[in-house]
């Protein structure tokens, strides 16, 4: 459930969120980064200790198997993935290990991710074993802790002035930041370029990875043009659409909504959705067909709310 106080803490103070929506895979062995380098879209082989990078894992046809966050620690590399996919991903990736000195395990039952986000997050998280990741447009940190230690960590963060809040509240920041989520705004049919994640999750200077040929072909032969693209939508007053609601223009079906929230910062409804490339321009008028009638909407640049921190997770060049 959305929390107004929690939203205020994320925007003006520090908000703590237990990431029950995320699973964790652990990769060990001296070859772990070079092995991941040949699988993932981002350049991870030279990641420093404590480094964090977004990436995607693709099929040979360039479609997404998942997006993920790569966190490199001294003794292992953690892959932060959707919780519902963790077990299957471990099996799939384990099948790609041959002679490499690398091992992969699903440690989702051992480690819980606890996030703290907001302008005061650096002070609140000081002294804790965290990694920095401003994924939602405000300063942010993640701790990967044993489940038995999570309550104590949250209590310490709250004692320093943070407010514990909900995943639904954090999701509003996610949409305001224009950040697509896998299984919501992206799925196994999505090419990363359609979702617009290339600036933070794809390196165009690294060596080969699974699905690279398709990405390179679209970028160099097609000029980066894709048939559909994820855009922001500013909604007219009225109820919010739901994921899957159809977008139309001049009685032509042009796409679908994927996420929709009420934005306190903008005092209005906003959404993410895919539209045909003819309707990608900011200011384009579209309509949303909902179960209760049609809503007027306007294509908006992303992010909806300007970040208060630097670029979000650029690829390593």
What does this structure look like?
- By secondary structure, this protein is of the alpha+beta class.
- The chain folds into 2 domains: 173 residues, Gyrase A, domain 2 (2-Layer Sandwich), CATH 3.30.1360; 109 residues, Elongation Factor Tu (Ef-tu), domain 3 (Beta Barrel), CATH 2.40.30.110.
- Helices cover 22% and strands 32% of the residues.
- It is built from 9 helices and 16 strands.
- Helix 1 crosses helix 6.
- It is globular.
- The C terminus is likely disordered.
Element layout with pairings:
Layout: H1 4-12, E1 15-18, E2 22-28, H2 32-37, E3 52-58, E4 64-72, E5 77-82, H3 86-94, E6 103-106, E7 111-117, H4 121-124, E8 131-132, E9 140-146, H5 147-159, E10 163-164, H6 167-176, H7 192-195, H8 198-201, H9 212-221, E11 228-235, E12 246-249, E13 252-263, E14 268-276, E15 285-290, E16 293-300
Parallel strand pairs: 1-10
Antiparallel strand pairs: 1-7, 2-5, 2-6, 3-4, 4-5, 7-9, 8-9, 11-14, 11-16, 12-13, 12-15, 13-14, 15-16
Helix pairs in contact: 1-6
| Coarse morphology | globular
How many helices does DSSP assign? Answer: 9
Outline the low-pLDDT stretches: 312-317
User: What is the number of independent domains?
Assistant: 2
CATH class of the largest domain: Alpha Beta
| Topology-level CATH name of the largest domain | Gyrase A, domain 2
Radius of gyration: 20 Å
H/E element sequence = HEEHEEEHEEHEEHEHHHHEEEEEE
CATH homologous superfamily title of the largest domain: Probable tRNA modification gtpase trme, domain 1
How are the strands of the largest sheet arranged?
A: 11-14-13-12-15-16
